[in-house]
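INFO  loader      accepted 1 record
INFO  loader      residues=80
INFO  predictor   begin
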Amino acid sequence: MPNYNQYGISSIGEKNGGATDSINNEKTGLICDRNEINDVCSSIENLLKDKKYIKYGEATKINSRNFHWKKIIEKYKKLL
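INFO  predictor   done
INFO  writer      dumping tokens
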């Protein structure tokens, strides 16, 4: 799956799973409970309100730079 964050596309992710590793809630996107329809709907409304998706998209584009393999490998080297 492509990393859309590098293109400045903010997202809404599930609170239980890997989305919390790449989405900083209310900074680069939104985290919600997919089993609660009201939570999903309010997250969509929140993302669209005042065009927050643009603000979050800019932040997620910057944040995605931390997830390039060169940086990740260097972190693993330090741990080992």
